[in-house]
Sequence to fold (242 residues):
Amino acid sequence: MRILIIRHAEPDYAKDSLTEKGWREAEFLADKLEHEKIDACYLSPLGRAQDTAKVTLRRTGQKAKTLGWLREFHAPVYDKITKKVHGPWDLMPSFYTPQDDLYDINKWGDTKYMRSGVRVKAEYNRVCKGLDKVLASHGYERKGKYYKAVNPNMDTVAFFCHFGVECVMLSHLLHISPVCLWQGFCAAPSSVTTLYTEEREKGIAVFRCSSFGDISHLYAKGEPPSFAARFCEMYANEDERH
Fold:
C-alpha cells in the first residue's frame, strides 16, 4: 500500500483559498498526479486543500471524500510570554530544545505546556483514530506500533491536507513525537510526501517514508517553491518571516 500526503498549494489564508501562485502550483501538481494510479482520495474540509485537490480531481474525473479530522491541526495553546494563542507547533527554539520530554513520543502530550492548551492530546488522538479508520477500510488494521495486513494490497491512497496535520499523521505512522516533525521538517505548499508499507513478516506491516515534501513538479516547470511554512534564514533578514 502507498500513501501520498499532499499539502495544499500556496494559501490565501484570508479567503481560505489559494493565491495566484498557489493556483499555478495546483496545476503543476495535477500534471504530476494525473499520471499516478490513485485508488482513493481524502480531503480536508478547508478551502485551500479543497481547491488544491479540485484541479487534480477535475483532470482525473475521480471522486473524493472529505474528512473533518484532516483539517489543519486545531488545538490552540496560550503563550504566557507573548500573550497570544497559536498552534502547538509554533515554538521558539530556546523554549522547546531544553525540554527532552517534547521529543518523546510517549511524553510530549503530557508536558505542562501541551496540557495547558485546548485539547492538544485529544485532538492528536482524534487524528490518529481517523487515520487508522481509513487504513482499516483499505485492509490494514492498527495493532500496537504496526499494522495487521488483513488484506494486503498495492493501492495508493491520497490525502490532501495541511502541514500541521501531516506531521501528526507521520508521527502516528512512524512513532515519532510530532514536535520533532513540526519543528524539524518543512513541507512546502503543494509538496507530496510518500510512504509505503513493508511486510517483511507475513501479516505484519509498517510504513516507511520514501520521500518527504517532494516539489519536483514545481522545479520541472521552473516554479520556485513558496516560502510559506518557513521562517527567516537569517535573523537580520527583514524581508523574510520572523
Summary: The helical segments are 20-33, 47-60, 93-96, 112-115, 120-137, 163-174, 178-184, 216-219. The chain has a mean pLDDT of 94.
